[in-house]
Amino acid sequence: MRTVERGVLLARALATSAMTLAVATAAHVAGGGQPPPLLLLGLLGALLLAAAAPLARRSLRAAPLLAWAAAGQLVVHLTLSRAHLAAGTAVTLALHHGPGTAPAHGGAHPTTVVPMLAAHVIGTVVGVALVVATDRSACAARRHWLRVWTVLVGAPALPEGRILVAPRRTPRPALSAVVLGVLRRGPPVLLNA
After folding, report:
1. 29 occurs within a structural domain
2. 183: in domain
3. Contacts with 61 (C-beta within 8 Å, 6 or more apart), sequence order
4. For range 44-64, the mean pLDDT
5. Residue 177 maps to a domain
6. Conformational region of residue 176, where left means phi above 0, alpha means psi within -120 to 50, and beta covers everything else
7. Which is more confidently placed, 143 or 13?
8. Which of 50, 158, 161, 183 shows the smallest number of beta carbons within 10 Å?
């Protein structure tokens, strides 16, 4: 794999994982959760980056990225919720899903989940749209740069291992009175005898 291709893969994976982590953390805090510790954010970011690498091998498309981001949101949300529960901030967990008290089973009241869910859904959809649009524009910019590079240098910038094959040009028949035994159309041609 060439350095440029590795860079593109890393940029796509970073954009995907950073968007997922940022939206999940922002929705967590906006829903009343405590800001997570930086060490936990770093660990989650590394795990999301590793999980995003297979997705980033091709151009990012909205449907697979939306499914991946939704799953990533769920993992980050549950991890942050469990981290607060393990730290003994059960009251924060109740407020995390909205105002009110938590039911006895430790979950949130169904009517208080709507703002949190809306924050996750809206953030995910907007984030996916931005990442996909950025990926498309970066690919278009790369294609245009390769065209400029070809004009400036005179040689196409091809990936390693690919051979440039010039298309075969079939010779055009000369403009004469007779082409392949058929008279050409138009006014008669005067021949000097």
Report:
1. yes
2. no
3. 132
4. 91
5. no
6. beta
7. 13
8. 161
In the structure encoding, which two tokens stand for residue 104, read together? 């006895």
The CA-based angle 58-52-144, given to 5 degrees, is 35
pLDDT-based confidence at residue 100 (cuts at 50, 70, 90): very low
Q: Is residue 40 part of a domain?
A: yes
pLDDT, one tens digit per residue, over 76-91 is 988 988 887 766 554 3
**Which range, 59-63, 84-88, 148-152, has the best average confidence (pLDDT)?**
59-63
| Number of domains making up the chain | 1
- Name the residue range of residue 65's domain: 3-153
3-state secondary structure the chain: CCHHHHHHHHHHHHHHHHHHHHHHHHHHHHCCCCCCCHHHHHHHHHHHHHHHCCHHHCCCCHHHHHHHHHHHHHHHHHHHHHHHHHCCCHHHHHHHCCCCCCCCCCCCCHHHCHHHHHHHHHHHHHHHHHHHHHHHHHHHHHHHHHHHHHHHHCCCCCCCCCCCCCCCCCCCCCCCCEECCEECCCCCCCCCC
The span from the CA of 61 to the CA of 177, in Å, is 56
> Is 0.85 topped by the overall pTM?
no
